[in-house]
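> example.struct
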């Protein structure tokens, strides 16, 4: 594809990026899309999104990744399109209505709110409290508000797709909160070390790994279909 313009897809982690790249290639639309891994957490997400948008000047931005469910009706693997994006401070710039319409036309994709936080929501109680603030159908992540502000700063239309990796009723290992670096990203080596000290948590981590892989495949198919539907100049 050209050095500038076209579609830009933002992901946070390498598993998401790889799954989407594979799906785009399989669908024959890889030439229309550039896929970037910004890093997880709000600091890296903000920096990575700004740098990618400045470098490539995309016509549209799609964001894709996993998220936690804040609403009881959301099951693992469900995909939510961002009708609203916010964090603890305020609403982020709004998603593009036309991109949202196209996303919601995809099979199985539903509309919802994306609530971005600085630290992962690990317990059902934490998710319940966030769900009250978010309202309606909602998910929680750590990057979407930063991505949305980067798009708003550049005046680029966007929509984000989030697949559920953990439901509102599920608790995640509490030590994950202590595995973050100074920029708010999860340190994988720290997670592995803590898991060895808490072997009872390993099944939950393996379950989560499997869900992230399945979510990546579903997101890849959705992103490929959405990318194919967007007219480019």
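> example.seq
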């Amino acid at each position: 594809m050209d050095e500038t313009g076209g579609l830009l897809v933002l992901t946070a982690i390498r598993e998401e990026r790889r799954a989407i790249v594979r799906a785009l290639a399989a669908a024959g639309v890889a030439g229309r899309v550039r896929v970037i891994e910004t890093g997880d957490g709000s600091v890296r997400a903000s920096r990575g999104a700004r740098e990618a948008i400045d470098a490539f000047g995309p016509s549209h931005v799609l964001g894709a990744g996993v998220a936690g469910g804040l609403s009881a009706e959301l099951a693992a693997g469900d995909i939510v399109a961002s009708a609203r994006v916010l964090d603890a401070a305020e609403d982020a710039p709004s998603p593009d209505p036309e991109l949202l319409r196209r996303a919601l036309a995809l099979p199985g994709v539903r509309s919802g709110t994306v609530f971005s936080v600085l630290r992962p929501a690990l317990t059902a109680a934490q998710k319940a409290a966030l769900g009250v603030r978010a309202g309606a159908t909602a998910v929680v992540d750590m990057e979407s508000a930063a991505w949305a502000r980067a798009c708003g700063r550049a005046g680029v239309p966007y929509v984000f797709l989030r697949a559920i990796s953990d439901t509102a009723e599920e608790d995640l290992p509490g030590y994950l909160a202590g595995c973050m670096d100074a920029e708010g990203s999860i340190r994988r080596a720290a997670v592995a070390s803590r898991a060895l000290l808490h072997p009872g948590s390993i099944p939950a981590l393996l379950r989560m790994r499997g869900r992230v892989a399945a979510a990546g495949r579903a997101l890849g198919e959705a992103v490929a279909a959405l990318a194919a539907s967007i007219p480019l100049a």
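> remarks
Residues 202-229 form the longest helix (28 residues).
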